Amino acid sequence: MSKKTQFVLISAVVTTSVLLSGCGLFGGDNAAKEIDPPKDVTYVKDEKSLATEAKVTEANKKQSKAAETSAPTKRELYLIDKNGYVVPQTLEIPKSKGVAKQSLEYLVEGGPVTNLLPNNFRAVLPADTRVLGTKLESDGTMVADFSPEFAEYKKEDELRILQAVTWTLTQFEGVNKVKIRINGYDKDEMPVNHTPISKGLSRADGINFDNTGVVDVTQTKPVTIYYLAQEGKQTYYVPVTKRIASDDKDMYTAIVNELVEGPAPASGLVTDFNPDAKLVAAPKYADGELTLNFNKNIFGNLKGTEISQHVLDSLVLSLTEQKAVDSVAIKVNGKKTLKDEKGKKLTEPVSRPKNVNTGSF
Question: Where is the GerMN domain positioned along the sequence (predicted)?
C-alpha cells in the first residue's frame, strides 16, 4: 500500500470520528460546518518538508532564548587602576542566570572583559584562569572554584585578587563571605604569598589598605572611605580601608572627619571637601537613617546652597558601608536647605546608589 493511500484511509477515519463525536476537536456541530473538508494537496507532505519545518521551529526557539540570555545588564566588577587600587567599575555585560560565575569570568585577564576595560584599568585574575564553579552555601558563604592557572599571579597582586573576588561576589544579595577553592580543593592559604584564607573573606576584611600613621592596630577599628581619583577628564570613586581610633558612638563622626581631611598626600587620590567643613552637632541615627548637621562650609566653592555631587556621593558611599546605615540626610546649621548641583532640593535622605562608577572613560 502506498503512503498516499495510507494517508487517505487515516483521513477518512479521523473525519468520521469527529462527525460522530458531536462536540469534537473543534467545538461542536456549528464549528464542524464552518470547516472545509480536507484536501490532499494541503495535507500530503513529504517527510523532508516536515523535518525542515521542525528544524526551523527549533532554531527560532534557540535564537529567541539566546537573545533573552544575552540582553545586557549592569554588573559591578572590581578591577585594578593605574595606581594599583582595586576599584568598582559598573560595566554592561550579557545577562546570565549564573551571575556569580559570570562576574568572576569577567575578572580574568584576556577574558571577555578585555574590550570593556576603561582606560588604564586591568583585570585582576591571571590569564587562562577558568571558573570551575560557584556555590552559595546556607550560611551565606559563596564558594568559588578556580582552575590551577589561578595560582599563576605576581606576589604583589595577591591581596588585590582576594579583594576583587570578595567585593565582586558580595554585591549579590545573600552573599556575606567568600571561600576559594583551586581545582576542587579548599585552601587554607593563598598559593604565592600565603595569605590565610581558611575562614573565608568578607568586606569587613577591607580593601586598598592605608595604615598611614597607625602605631597600634589593636586600638583602632577599620572603616572604608571613598576618595576620588581621576583618569583624563573623568573622576571615579576608590574605596580605601583605614584604621581609626574611635569607639562605636564616634564612628560616624570619625568617618566624616577622615573624608574632610582627605587621603594621604602620596596616595594619588583627592577629596572635594572644603577643609573647613565641620559637623556642628553629633550625628543622629534612627531606623537606618543617619542625619548629619554641617556648618556652611559643606557648600565648598559652589554658589548659594548647592553641594558638590562628589562630596555628597563620598559621604553616602562611605557611611552606608556601615552595616546599620541605609541612607544619609544632610542639614546645614540645623536646616534642610541643601540642593544638589542640578538645583534639586535635598529634602529627603539619600540612599546608596545601586552601582558605583557608571561613567565610561
Answer: 100-191, 252-341
